[in-house]
């Protein structure tokens, strides 16, 4: 493997935007048995690793997000997606902790994915990119930490697909995890969630500009299909109550129905905007691969069908969190994780936050969540002897 | 208006498949202010109208259904969609009642809709078909009943969009309704439901074979877009529990993941089949128009913003029904209808059936539902002096 760690560009306050490159005949051996001969992991860090290397926090991102957790995304110009949670004086205090977030394998924000060049052909991978799993994402993250000289994570945290990665970390690298926070997630993807993902994939594949996955070579983008996929998914990220409160049946820029197929309702206009803006920042094939990885996720199946079996060696402190109005990853799924952790005699706490905002609540301003998560990570850090600040 | 009622063909046991044609410069004046100069209403009847004309039951169909309630659909070959409910000795006993169901305006099973010829141009309407409402559907049904010489309905019944029509009947023609059963429905379409419909419409419109609505003239069908729309909608018709029970994470015809984008999971295969089979029986533009009609439905808004105002003149007996696992038209929506009926001092009963099957429960074998509905309609018939049978 190559030893190069290239710092690409300095970013706004505290952010270090970087890449790690791994090369060699079997740079990353995947769960499918296939290999990625070359792997780039694009990541961002905030704060400084302490001398004891004991203050590292790995943030795992969700399906449509990326490594730009708390600083502007240099590609999209959008602010960091967890600005509320990560920064000086925040839950993940960048003065105390060294925060790392890597774009997942199969992604499109710098880490190797289907839009990148297949070294065997000199062309974009497209559908020749191997199907990846949550386990593969975590293996790549572990390789990055090895490269950075970080043996142990003070905390690994993430919501939704990020939470699946947290669970995978707990199962695969228990000795490297001091504490873990799987948020708004599940130990396996449900039939309903697979169904919604399949609708999105079919929408993309139905777009003639998808070109069997080969759209880059044809100089087109399956933007309509990807927009429809995003619209369908976006509904699942919000609660019915949130949609009602934000939009209800309010009309968009008009007093009366158009009696046509314009976006009469604000909620239609909002969804169309969500679809359009997603196309500008996300790769359609990455969407196929990452949703597939989530669908394949079933931690119990990987451990003889018993979820507790995944946590047999776990010594970490774990805080499992869910949200009352999340119907995509409902509290019942979090409780299954808690029951398995209890069965494995793990050190686990569980909290369900009352919100009406739905699945995306973990990205929003929920003061009780900040207080709980802040207390949890701060206590883990104290216990580990990480120096306090401020 | 023409007086022609053409009986097209005798159909299997008890079914009379027919059309009523209405012509004239303003055959049907729509809520939008536009007019349909020619209107065909395709309908099916079961049983016989009694001499007192007091035993007529109008069944109103849902979005993707049609007038073939209890007999094979001659176009698709599928059995009647409410075979369990309508027939000799069933809840709607065809030996006692005269059952009528008409394909809705804007539909594609014989009643005038966007795939039909616009007499002004000699071409298919396509998007030149006027946007219709639930109120327009009910006006066309009332015209049909006038033509059949039926002044009064012993019962008007329907689930989902059919229930919206029932509510509209109660509000617009209260003097014609002896009893009414709005099932699994709402007095207005929610933001979440509008959002799901908008995804479906965008999926259709994203298909290049939609041709701006003009696909018939181009000899193509937007089958991929319509299939995606149906797949997304179909998820909303089932509960999470039903999907879990029916499919879970079971693989389709294989022992291991394909590590590809085939339909690995049964739920994917099932959804793809739902999409494909829908395309064979439904017109994409009809889907746009009918979903739009549902989105526009807001009975309170039509009555000064107070739902009870819609029911001020109502003397009918009403049975409102919902299902515990229906998240598309949840019980809370039915309760709003019940509260408004109570506020209007109407004669209303309410029942919530415990099922785990989701919105489509009203089409399924729910014995408690049959018993309740059977008792309700039988009691209404006894009270109205309709002769008993058997």
Task: Give me a quick take on this structure.
Chain A is built from nine helices and 13 strands.
Number of contiguous helices of chain A:
9
Q: Which two chains form the greatest contact, residue counts included?
A: A-B, 55 and 55 residues
* Structural class category of chain A: alpha/beta
Question: How far is the N terminus from the C terminus of chain A?
Answer: 41 Å
> Looking at CATH, which topology of the largest domain in chain A would you report?
Rossmann fold
The proportion of residues in beta strands of chain A is 15-25%
**Oligomeric organization of the protein chains:** homodimer
Shape of chain A: globular
Provide the spatial order of strands within the biggest beta sheet of chain A.
1-2-3-7-4-10-11-12-13
Number of beta strands of chain A: 13
CATH superfamily of the largest domain in chain A: Alpha/Beta hydrolase fold, catalytic domain
The radius of gyration of chain A is 21 Å
Q: Overall mean pLDDT score of chain A?
A: 94
Q: How many domains of chain A?
A: 2
């Amino acid at each position: 493997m190559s030893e190069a760690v290239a710092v690409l560009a300095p970013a706004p306050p505290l952010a270090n935007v970087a890449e790690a490159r791994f090369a060699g005949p079997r740079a990353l051996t995947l769960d499918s048995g296939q290999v990625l001969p070359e792997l780039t992991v694009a990541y961002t860090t905030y704060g400084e690793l302490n001398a004891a290397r004991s203050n590292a926090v790995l943030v795992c991102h969700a399906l449509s997000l990326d490594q730009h957790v708390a600083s502007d995304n240099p590609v999209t110009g959008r602010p960091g997606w967890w600005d509320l949670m990560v920064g000086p004086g925040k839950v993940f205090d960048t003065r105390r902790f060294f925060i790392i977030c890597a774009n997942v394998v199969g992604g499109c924000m710098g880490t190797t994915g289907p839009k990148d060049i297949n070294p065997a052909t000199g062309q974009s991978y497209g559908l020749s990119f191997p199907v990846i799993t949550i386990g593969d994402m975590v293996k790549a993250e572990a390789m990055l930490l090895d490269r950075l000289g970080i043996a142990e994570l003070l905390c690994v945290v993430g919501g939704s697909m990020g939470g699946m990665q947290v669970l995978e970390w707990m199962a695969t690298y228990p000795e490297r995890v001091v504490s873990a926070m799987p948020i708004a997630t599940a130990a396996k993807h449900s039939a309903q969630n697979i169904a919604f993902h399949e609708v999105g994939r079919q929408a993309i594949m139905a777009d003639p500009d998808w070109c069997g996955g080969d759209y880059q070579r044809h100089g087109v983008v399956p933007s309509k299909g990807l927009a429809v996929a995003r619209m369908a998914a976006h509904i699942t990220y919000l609660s019915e109550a949130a949609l009602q409160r934000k939009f209800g049946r309010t009309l968009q820029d008009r007093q009366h129905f158009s009696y046509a197929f314009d976006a009469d309702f604000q909620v239609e206009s909002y969804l169309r905007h969500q679809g359009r803006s997603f196309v500008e920042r996300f790769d359609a094939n990455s969407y196929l691969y990452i949703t597939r990885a989530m669908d394949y996720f079933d931690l119990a199946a990987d451990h003889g069908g018993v979820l507790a079996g995944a946590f047999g060696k776990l010594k970490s402190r774990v805080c499992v969190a869910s949200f009352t109005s999340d119907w995509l990853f409902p509290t019942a799924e979090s409780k299954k994780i808690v029951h398995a952790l209890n069965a494995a005699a793990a050190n686990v706490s569980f909290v369900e936050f009352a919100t009406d905002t739905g699945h995306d609540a973990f990205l929003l301003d929920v003061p009780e969540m900040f207080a709980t998560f802040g207390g949890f990570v701060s206590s883990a850090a104290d216990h580990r002897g990480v120096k306090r600040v401020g």
